Amino acid sequence: MKYTWAVGLAVFVSLCLGAGAPARASVVTFSTDQTGANTQIDIDHTTIYNFYVLPGQSVTGILGDFTIKRGSKTTEPITFSLWSGVDGLGTRLASISLAASSVSQSYESRIFDLDPLGAPLGPGSYSVQLSSMTGDQGSRQYFFKGGRFQSSDPAAVSTVPPPSGGGTPPAVPEPSTVLSAALGSVAALALARRRHRPGIGTRA
């Protein structure tokens, strides 16, 4: 097969270029592991979780998956909001509310759907919030099962702060760097093949 080696080298270059491309996150789901205490949401109680989009990643949609219930007299909606910056101190980027009538009085998983976002989230710090203007009496509150906050794609979105002292995850090589390395390998393999091909020598 005259061109088998060339085809193999082309595949090798393609794989190298693919390895150098940064990973992209599409939609990330946030939830808790439900190991914590039941947490109330009302006019006096709100819950905020911080998260961090990692370098080289992009988030185009967010889902909140929480196991919640309402009181027997709850009438106000419950809202899931996305904020720039930590602790809900930045700009509100998106939000969605569920009507009280759509939440059961028994614990059930409910999805807060912010997909797609108006604009993708690039690397940086963000936060999500569960809130409601409902009264703080038990019969009017919302409750959800708390615990450790977690991301469905920890390789793209971390729920713990980045390392202190300016530390960052290892950098992803630029595609041009990977291409140079791949072409160098191609040239070396081609030269080695030429030197070992019967009947063909190298000039001084």
Mean pLDDT: 81
Fraction in helix: 10-25%
How many helix segments?
Answer: 2
Percentage beta strand: 25-35%
What is the 3D shape? elongated
The stretches of 5 or more residues where confidence is low (pLDDT under 50) are: 165-179, 200-204
Tally of strands: 11
Order of helices and strands: HEEEEEEEEEEEH
| Gyration radius, rounded | 26 Å
Largest sheet: 6 strands, mixed
Query: Roughly how many Å apart are the termini?
Result: 30 Å
Global structural class? alpha+beta
Task: Explain what the structure shows.
It is a single chain. The chain is an alpha+beta fold. The chain is built from two helices and eleven strands, in the order αβββββββββββα. The strands form two sheets. Strands 1, 2, 4, 7, 9 and 10 form a six-stranded mixed beta sheet that branches. A five-stranded antiparallel beta sheet has the order 6-5-8-3-11, with no helix packed on it. Helix 1 packs antiparallel against helix 2 (175-196). The longest helix has 22 residues, at 175-196.
Write out key terms for the chains shown:
5-stranded antiparallel sheet; 2 helices; elongated; 32% strand
In short:
The chain contains two helices and eleven strands; from the N terminus they run H-E-E-E-E-E-E-E-E-E-E-E-H. The chain has helices at residues 4-20, 175-196; strands spanning 27-32, 38-41, 47-53, 61-70, 78-84, 92-98, 108-114, 124-132, 142-145, 149-151, 157-158.
